[in-house]
Amino acid sequence: LRTHAPKALLEPALIMVLLVQDARRSCLRRDSGVLFCFWILSLLCGILPFQSLVRRALQVGFHRKLRASTWSCSAPKETSFPARLLIAFVSDEDAFAWQGYLYAILLFLTAVIQSLCLQQHFSLCFQLGINVRASLIAAIYKKSLTMSGATRKESTVGETVNLMSADAQRFMDMANFIHQLWSCPLQIILSIVFLWLELGPSVLAGIATLLLLLPINAFLAAKAKTIQERNMKNKDERMKIMTEVLNGIKILKLFAWEPSFEKRVNDIRVRELKDLVNFGYLQSVSLFAFTCAPSLVSLATFAVYVLVDENNILDAQKAFTAISLFNVLRFPMGTLPMVISALVQVRPHLEQGVQGDPMTSVQSKTLPCPTQELMGGLAVLLPQPSCLCSVTLDITPGSLVAVVGPVGSGKSSLVSAMLGEMENIKGHINIQGSLAYVPQQAWIQNATLKDNIIFGSEVDEARYQQVLKACALLPDLELLPAGDQTEIGEKGINLSGGQKQRVSLARAVYSDADIYVLDDPLSAVDAHVGKYLFEHVLGPKGLLQKKTRILVTHSISFLPQVDNIVVLAGGAVSEHGSYSTLLANKGAFSQFLNLYGNQEENVSEENTAGTGNTVGQWQLEWLWVLSKRSTSSQKKAQEEPPKKLKGQKLIEKEAVETGRVKFSMYVRYLRAVGWCFTFWVAMGYIAQYVASVGSNLWLSEWTDDSVRYQNQSYPAHLQDLRIGVYGALGISQGIFLLFATMLSARGAMRASRVLHQLLLSNILHAPMSFFDTTPVGRIINRFAKDIFTVDETIPSTFRTWISCFMGIISTLIVICLATPFFAVVIIPLSIFYYFVLRFYVATSRQLRRLDSVTRSPIYSHFGETVSGLSVIRAYGHQERFLKKNEITMDINQKSVYSWIISNRWLAIRLEFVGSLVVFFSALLAVIAKGTLQGGIVGLSVSSALNVTQTLNWLVRTSSELETNIVAVERVHEYVIVKNEAPWVTKTRPPRGWPSRGEIQFIDYKVRYRPELDLVLQGITCNIGSTEKVGVVGRTGAGKSSLTNCLFRLLEAAGGKIIIDDVDIATIGLHDLRNNLTIIPQDPVLFTGTLRMNLDPFDQYSDEEVWKALELAHLKTYVQGLPERLLHHVSEAGENLSVGQRQLVCLARALLRKAKILILDEATAAVDLETDHLIQTTIRSAFADCTVLTIAHRLNTIMDSNRVMVLHAGQIVEFDSPEELLRKEGIFSAMAKDAGITAADTTAL
Fold first, then answer.
1. Which of 129, 247, 429, 1083 has the most crowded CB, counting CB atoms within 10 A?
2. 443-459 burial by CB neighbour count: b if 16+ within 10 A, else e?
3. Which pLDDT band holds residue 37 (cuts at 50, 70, 90)?
4. Comparing C-alpha atoms, which of 360, 386, 369, 387 is closest to residue 429?
């Protein structure tokens, strides 16, 4: 299709393909035919009675009396045939009364039939549109579930969400217009034929003028296309950065990097707005052409007609019939460019979404075969050395295989290859049985804890409880506000790292698969928990003892208990065999063990001796604490009736505003536009309509000349004057309109800039708690859909509204000039309109709000799916997620459908009333037959028709405006979100602060959100200058909260923290955060160069950056990259391994080199060798700094000066490691679990 067909046929063809695909819902096949018939019918009612019978009416010979029969026409249904007959009837004294009544009824009936047909057509069109949109979104979702890794790297989540939101919407709009493609040319041809019959060859002058305008339109459309394409790129880029900023907001806050990213977003926004304003200018030029067209055309035609032959006299009958026909021409000629530009906007996205390269699906992974084996070469198409070259493995069913190796040796790649996520270049993988997968970074859904574990399987309560126990989740359930019914936020935001990992493991265990692929699940949990999990779940005695388990691990203490060990190095298997075999081989593995395994013997001895009692003791203590807590909570529970627990719902339902949009929203938007702009835009429109009324009145004077100079020759000077003034008035209309639209384009751009700037800076100033409780999808929706509305929809709706309003005023003035008694009909009419308006607008507005609110979950669900793709595929749950996506979409479709139907409801009512108005004005004419002139009747009837049409539009655009201004309301809602403390305050810390790095906690208390309990319950301690302190404690004891407090991500609920004699609550956040350094738990990287990730403000020289990389052991790796420091990091750093990302974070910290360093479990994701490198680097590079280490592996903090043991938000032990080991407290129990004795610490 793409190669042979001409470009012009491509879009309609593709849209047809889409529709045909969708026509599996057979109703669409039916719809298309029915649509066609309705459209034809309404065309016939609108045009044909109006023109084909015009000739007959004229030939009856009412001649001069036909004065202003078709005054000021705008839509193709103005002066229909019955109207002509009616005028004839009024002019003819001898006609019978019944004829008049018959014509009035005929007039009424044609209007009603046309209205019904047209509305039916629109209704079907819109239904077609929502079907197209739904199938597109579903197709994109389905496609993303089957994308290969390589294809996924090409488009970011942000771009795909954009495809789903803005572009699917464009397709929906396109479906409504698609029939204009054939009906516009048809209307144009009909009009021209009738014009020829009316004015003869001089019509050619008018048509020539029209044809001259066409290339102008084509040129404008082409320019508009290039601007749109540029704009799409900018929009995608902006959304991409915004998505990353919101996902990595915690890192931005910790490093005080918000200004740098704000600048990046604003730079793109500036380009986007520049294109927007140029697009606005193009639109106003084409509007100018469109407005001038009828005047220019009729001017050319009349001038030629009058000048060609002296006998040609321009009388009312010819002039008004011609103008009527030229006005009919206006509609298709105006619509055609719109339809074409809509097609233009759809085209790039067709190419992106529908034709986009066939995304390679992951091959099916289950092949019948007696054993499970990995054979042949597995290679991964990645530019890094993280690919596998000829791995051959054979794994026997029911065995436990450990995969070990240094960072970047291809462990995660091997796992991905087993799951079929890698590109297989040669060889094959045979896997027999079902898979369960635990990724290195746990993927948690936004659902209850229980839903996360059960993950769509059958609920088996006994097995569920058994899994919770084995995965050590029972104590956590006690801590969570609503037990396993607690809602987990997006990305598991209200769980600690260890809890997430255990939930992820529990999900795998519960799924009861045949093969378990575990990518380092024990790295994020504390040592004793890790040991507990190994014993109860993974080990030879665990729940999974009969299953095949492939465990990627860095922890050597478990290796003696596994059946088989695979050692990877540089993407190939360097050796494999049992623990004893490998030790005996004296290869790389045994050297590695001798280096790092000094605690190894203790562990193996204890393992043989059986360390049940120490685990028991730790568990007992823990259970004792819990039982106290749970008994007290049980007592409480008996006292109070059950209610929704506070904190159970984390994500609040999105607020839906109700009632009228506050007037202040319009004011706010106009203030953003600027009052000066607003005033001059209004003046421009008023001037345009004054000119329009003027030209109509002038034409009516001109046609009166035919009566005045009935038997005389027409004076030449008068003829020139008539033509000249008429032309001037026509052109001046266009010029005023051009002035107004150009100004409104500038104003609209100003408003877009102001509102986006306010929204962005406020979101970046929002406190962490806001991001914890607000799904990212919801904030993204503000930046995507709502800002799009402010940019593009509101300005055009405002323009339409003003011109409708002015149109009505000018028409009413004309009617009242002609027939003053028509004003009596207007009063009851306007009262009725007012009520319909109020009734409809309220409904429509609320439906639009519902649409916005039900749309967010579609994107949230999509974002979640993409981040958990490998997990969803490994479990084979694609169907379930497709179903879920369809359900969320259906909910949204309901509100969209209701909205569409409400529009049709309105249209039928309004047009019916309009038809009644016409009927009454005709009836009045029949009754008052003797006293009226034919021309006056024509004017009254045709203006009545006109005003109905325009009033209908006014109601429509008022409600459009109100539903769209909701976007301003929604943006405003986030502009007034409470900010965190100011970034810089008047009290600034002294230069070089903190110089000593002393930290004092004074009775420090903190809670996450006002309604929740305290997380830290009055901590008091002093940490001396350059002291190294380790912080330990079970998951949820408040270790990470401690770091959040130092950076003031959480504000104190009581007490204070003093660093070097400065109370940190008194200084600005950036002054504080710029002077502390953290290596965070999750290594977050952003799209951009490697250098940008290390130093976004360009504060450091290249030498310093290289030095930092060298200390972080990345220098050789980066030097090996083709672009070195400018190496492109993909979204979320996906083209680096987790270990490498961790080292990049270390390099960041080394570059900053503040006096205080916080390590938040920074080495959880790296192997022991890299861990050792990091530890030595930190010891040497940060020797003169105060270092707080939050550790999971006790051996990383055994050389600290002191160790702080946290428990339930309080410090229970705080002393040197030697002392604590002697004391036989919580710490010594943990140390025994990890196999560390007092002898080791002295050795260290």
1. 1083
2. bbbbebbbbbbbbeeee
3. low
4. 369
